[in-house]
Amino acid sequence: MQEGEEGDKSTSDTVARIPPHCHITIKCTREIAGFNGLSEAVRRLDFSSAVRDVRRFNYICALLELLLGGQRLTHLPGAAQKLLLSMLEQLADHVATSKHNPEALRALAAALGGAREAERRACWGRPLGSRALWRHHDRAIARITRIAQDIRIPEPGPEVMPKLHDLPEECIREIMLRISDHRDLDAASSAWSVMASLCSERRVWRELVLFHFTQQQLSTVLAKDETDVDWKKTFHQLRKVYGLREEAQFAETLSLCRHCKCLFWRSLGHPCIADQCPEYRERLKEAGGPLPPHPVPPAAFLKFFSL
């Protein structure tokens, strides 16, 4: 009996060690007919745990923001709606506990409330679909909204040293140089006069330009011998023309394996055919080696599904 229990335990441990991943159908042919389900992909990629990971938090927020915009959420199947609202509740609980990113939660709660009201107005004063399902949704939406409204971040006590205001200007500058989102720079400028002064420095915006854009793109708006450059103006010109590097805005994104057509988190890896099949590995060596995985930003992830 004990041997059987130990065997079951070792099997379950092996299964538990398999990192989250999801095989998808890139395109359908006569030989291959496939369909990608969003709810199944969310489960297989373990998005519920990803909301508590600091590296993946912004990716999940961006994905939820896309789903809530344009009433996409209300067009999903009921099971997918319940799953995504459950993710939002877990995200809200995490933010309330950690006190990190409360503004991101409030933005999602506002978008969720807007989608709810739009759906109610669209169909004679009540949403289209199962009343029982929408009663469940209303309870979840009310709880998420309440959590977002009740979050308060207390000011550190006198025993907490040093505070941000106590840091020398050089340290604050180094913090500003590591911000990759121009909206965060604008928010920092409005929060503190020292940060506003640092954000007006050309170096901060120059580093942001070089982070998001290539030299070839930069040459389209700058003269060859131009020296007195308004880097903030240049950044916004390039942003309007080329957009921002979406994958660079997240500490970690989903990746697509080009060999086994599998979505996975790059830091966790996945069971790949290139690692498991010696014959396939030999063919890859003859062809020049394995191909690197392709990053999948939130907007590209949603294109795999019929939404």
UniProtKB/TrEMBL annotation:
Superkingdom as given in the UniProt entry: Eukaryota
Pathway assigned to this chain's UniProt record: Protein modification; protein ubiquitination
Gene Ontology cellular component terms for the protein in this record: cytoplasm; nucleus; SCF ubiquitin ligase complex
Single GO biological process annotation from the record: protein ubiquitination
Location in the cell: Nucleus
InterPro entries: F-box-like_dom_sf (IPR036047), FBX25/32 (IPR040394)
Main localization of the protein described in the UniProt heading: nucleus
Keyword Phosphoprotein: no
Name under which the protein is recorded: F-box only protein 25
